[in-house]
C-alpha cells in the first residue's frame, strides 16, 4: 500500500551506481578504491580556520537565499571581470548539484527536450526526468569530442537546453576553445538555453580551460568549491547567468534548499584567495602515471582534465569486468553503463594517493592479460 503513495517520477531512475560501489567498498577490508570522485587532499588550513572562526563567532543562522555578501559579492566581482556582461547575476548554492537542480527546475517543463552528451555525469538524465523533460543523447564515442554537427542535428522545436560539462566526468576530456565556441554559438543562434557544469574547471592539464560564457552571454554556469578546495562535504557552490534566470533560481531556493550553509560561505570567501596550483600539479602527475601504466594494455583516450580516466574494457561488458575486479581483486571502479547507454568502458578516479594508483595499475595490467 505504501508503494502506491510514491510519485511516479521516483520510478524513472534507480539509486546511483556510484554510491552502490562506494557502499560496497566500505565493507571490504583493503580495497583499491578508484570509484569515488572526491579529492584525496583536505581543505586548505586557512579555509578550515575561517570556517571554525565563523562557527565560533555565531555565524550559524540562516543565510540569505542568494548568498551572503561576503562571498557573493566577491564572486560577482570575479565573474564580471571575466565576462563583460552587465546582466550577469549570481546565486550561492548547496554545492554544484544544488545549482543544477535549481537551474533545471527553473527551465525544464514536461515534454521539453534536453540535449545530453553520452557518456556524461549520472545526475544529468535523472534531473531531466524529475522535471518531466526528455533526454536526447548526442554520442561522443570513440574519442569523446563534441561534434557540433551532431548537436545541431539533434535540435528540434522541443529542444529547451543543452547541458555541457568540461572538463568532463567520466571521461576527463576538456573541450578545446573552438569546440566550446561552436557549441556556445549554436545554442545562442537557435535560442536554446545552455548550462555549463564547470565544477572541474581548475583541473585542466594540457591547455587553458575555456567557458562557453565567453561566447554566449546567456550561458548559465554552475561551479563550486568541492573539487578545487577538497570540500565536497561542505556543500558550497554557486551559479551565474542571466539575471532573469538567476532571480528565479533564488526564488526556488527560498522554497527548497533555503540557503547554503552560512559558516562555509565565510570560509569560501577565504578560499577564493587560496591558490590550488600545487594540487593541480599533483593531479597532472597522477594523470600521467595512470596513462603510462595503462596505455599498453587498454584502449584509452588520454584525459586532459578532471581526475578521471575512461578506458575500454579488454573483454566482456564493463559491468562484468568491474564485478570481476571487485570480487577477485577488491578493485573498485564504476562501469560505463552508469554514465552511458553503452557498457564498453569503465571509470577510474585517480583522486587517490600514489600507492593506491600503483596497486590499481598492477591489478588492471593483470586483468588485461587475462583476456577472458
If helices are DSSP runs of H or I spanning 4 or more residues, what is the number of helices? 12
Q: Determine the fraction of residues in helical runs and give it as a percent range.
A: 25-40%
Uncertain residue segments: none
Using only C-alpha atoms, the radius of gyration works out to: 21 Å
Largest sheet: 7 strands, mixed
Strand order of the largest sheet: 2-8-7-6-5-3-4
**Average predicted confidence as pLDDT:** 95
Q: Strand tally, please? A: 12
For the termini, the CA-CA separation is 46 Å
Helix and strand sequence = HEHHEHEHEHEHEEEHHHEHEEEH
**Per DSSP, what share of the residues sits in E-state strands of 2 or more residues?**
5-15%
Structural class: alpha/beta
Strand-helix topology:
Elements: H1 17-26, E1 32-33, H2 45-56, H3 69-82, E2 88-93, H4 95-107, E3 113-118, H5 123-130, E4 134-139, H6 148-154, E5 159-165, H7 177-189, E6 193-197, E7 220-224, E8 237-242, H8 243-254, H9 262-271, H10 277-294, E9 308-309, H11 318-329, E10 331-332, E11 334-335, E12 346-349, H12 354-370
Parallel strand pairs: 1-10, 3-4, 3-5, 5-6, 6-7
Antiparallel strand pairs: 2-8, 7-8, 9-12, 11-12
Helix pairs in contact: 2-9, 3-9, 4-8, 10-12
Amino acid at each position: 500500500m505504501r508503494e502506491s503513495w510514491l510519485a511516479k517520477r521516483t520510478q524513472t531512475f534507480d539509486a546511483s551506481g556510484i554510491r552502490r560501489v562506494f557502499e560496497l567498498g566500505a565493507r571490504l577490508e583493503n580495497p583499491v578504491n578508484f570509484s569515488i570522485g572526491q579529492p584525496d587532499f583536505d581543505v586548505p588550513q586557512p579555509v578550515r580556520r575561517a570556517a571554525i572562526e565563523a562557527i565560533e563567532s555565531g555565524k550559524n543562522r540562516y543565510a540569505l537565499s542568494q548568498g551572503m555578501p561576503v562571498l557573493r559579492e566577491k564572486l560577482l566581482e570575479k565573474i564580471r571581470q571575466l565576462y563583460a556582461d552587465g546582466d550577469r547575476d549570481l546565486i550561492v548554492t548547496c554545492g554544484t548539484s544544488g545549482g543544477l537542480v535549481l537551474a533545471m527546475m527553473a527551465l525544464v517543463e514536461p515534454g521539453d527536450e534536453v540535449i545530453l552528451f553520452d557518456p556524461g555525469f549520472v545526475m544529468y538524465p535523472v534531473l531531466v526526468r524529475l522535471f518531466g523533460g526528455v533526454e536526447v543523447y548526442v554520442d561522443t564515442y570513440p574519442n569523446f569530442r563534441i561534434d557540433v554537427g551532431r548537436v545541431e542535428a539533434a535540435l528540434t522545436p522541443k529542444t529547451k537546453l543543452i547541458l555541457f560539462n568540461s572538463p568532463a566526468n567520466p571521461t576527463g576530456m576538456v573541450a578545446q576553445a573552438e569546440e566550446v565556441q561552436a557549441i556556445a554559438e549554436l545554442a545562442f543562434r537557435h535560442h536554446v538555453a545552455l548550462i555549463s557544469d564547470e565544477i572541474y574547471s581548475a583541473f585542466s592539464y594540457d591547455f587553458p580551460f575555456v567557458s562557453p560564457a565567453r561566447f554566449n552571454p546567456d550561458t548559465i554556469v554552475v561551479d563550486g568549491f568541492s573539487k578545487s578546495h577538497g570540500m565536497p562535504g561542505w556543500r558550497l557552490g554557486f551559479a551565474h547567468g542571466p539575471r532573469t534566470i538567476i532571480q528565479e533560481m533564488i526564488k526556488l531556493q527560498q522554497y527548497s534548499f533555503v540557503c547554503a550553509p552560512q559558516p562555509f560561505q565565510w570560509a569560501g570567501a577565504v578560499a577564493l584567495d587560496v591558490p590550488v596550483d600545487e594540487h593541480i600539479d599533483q593531479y597532472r602527475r597522477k594523470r600521467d602515471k595512470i596513462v603510462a601504466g595503462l596505455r599498453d594494455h587498454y584502449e584509452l583516450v588520454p584525459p586532459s582534465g578532471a581526475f578521471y580516466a575512461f578506458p575500454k574494457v579488454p573483454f566482456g561488458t564493463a559491468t562484468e569486468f568491474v564485478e570481476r575486479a571487485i570480487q577477485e581483486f577488491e578493485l573498485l571502479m564504476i562501469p560505463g553503463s552508469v554514465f552511458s547507454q553503452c557498457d564498453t568502458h569503465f571509470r577510474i578516479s585517480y583522486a587517490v594517493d600514489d600507492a593506491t594508483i600503483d596497486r590499481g595499475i598492477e591489478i588492471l595490467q593483470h586483468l588485461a592479460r587475462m583476456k577472458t
